[in-house]
Design goal:
- This protein is α/β, with parallel strands linked by helices.
- The protein has a domain of 95 residues: Rossmann fold (3-Layer(aba) Sandwich).
- Strands 2-3-1-4-7 form a 5-stranded parallel sheet. A two-stranded antiparallel sheet has the order 5-6.
- The chain has 9 helices and 7 strands.
- The chain starts with a strand and ends with a helix.
- The radius of gyration is 19 Å and the shape is globular.
Length: 209
C-alpha cells in the first residue's frame, strides 16, 4: 500500500497515521524524519549537503529533498509500501514523485486528505494545555483537567491563534494546488476529520478498502 497523507495542523493526522501503518505494516515517512536521519548518517553523502542548509537555518531545497525521499523509498522496509507525510508539498514535488515511482515501477494507491474546518482546528489547538510534571495533555473544553492539576498547566507557545493562523495559511497555500492535481489523477480520498477518533478511523479504512 503506497499512500500520501495530507491534512492541516491539528487535524489528528498523527494519531490516524499510527493506526494506518500498524494495519498495513508500512513505514511512516516524513521529510523532517528523513532530513534528521540523513544528517545523522555519516555514510550518507547527502548528509553534509543537507547540513549546509540546516546549520544556517535555511530551508532544504526541493532538489535535495527529492533525492532524499528517493533514497528513503528504496530502503528495504518500503518494499511493502509507505505512508508519506508532509511530502509532496508542492505540485513540482508531486510531479517529481510520480517520476521517481514510475522509474521504480511503483505507483500510488491513495492520497488521503483529512479535512477539518479552520474554526474547529482553532478550537482544538488553542484549548490544549500541557502538564509540565507528567507530560499529559488536556483540553479546556473536550478533556478538562482535574481541579488540583489545572493551576500548573501551561499552553505551548505554538498552540496560540497567531501561530496556528500562520501554519494554516502556509498549509492552504501549499496544499490547495495538490488537491486538484491528485483529484484529476483519481487518487484523492477526502476524509471528514471531525468527530470521535474511532469514527474518523473507520472513514479512513473504508476509503482505503
Amino acid at each position: 500500500m503506497n499512500l500520501i497523507f495530507m491534512g492541516p495542523p491539528g487535524a489528528g493526522k498523527g494519531t490516524q497515521a499510527d493506526a494506518i501503518i500498524k494495519e498495513f505494516g508500512i513505514p511512516q515517512i516524513s521529510t523532517g524524519d528523513i532530513i534528521r536521519a540523513t544528517i545523522r548518517d555519516p555514510k550518507n553523502p547527502l548528509g553534509a549537503e543537507c547540513r549546509s542548509y540546516t546549520d544556517k537555518g535555511a530551508l532544504v531545497p526541493d532538489d535535495l529533498v527529492n533525492r532524499m525521499v528517493d533514497q528513503r523509498l528504496k530502503q528495504d522496509d518500503c518494499k511493502v509500501g509507505f505512508l508519506l507525510d508532509g511530502y509532496p508539498r508542492t505540485v513540482v514535488q508531486a510531479e517529481t514523485l510520480d517520476k521517481l515511482l514510475a522509474a521504480a515501477k511503483r505507483k500510488l494507491q491513495h492520497v488521503l486528505l483529512l479535512e477539518v474546518p479552520d474554526a474547529v482546528l482553532l478550537e482544538r489547538i488553542t484549548g490544549r494545555r500541557s502538564d509540565p510534571q507528567t507530560g499529559r495533555v488536556y483540553h479546556v473544553k473536550f478533556d478538562p483537567p482535574p481541579a488540583d492539576v489545572a493551576p500548573r498547566l501551561i499552553q505551548r507557545s505554538d498552540d496560540t491563534e497567531a501561530v496556528l493562523g500562520e501554519r494554516l495559511r502556509q498549509y492552504h497555500e501549499k496544499t490547495a494546488p495538490l488537491i486538484p492535481y491528485y483529484s484529476k489523477a483519481g487518487l484523492l480520498r477526502r476524509i471528514d476529520g471531525q468527530g470521535a477518533m474511532d469514527e474518523v478511523r473507520k472513514r479512513i479504512f473504508a476509503a482505503l478498502k
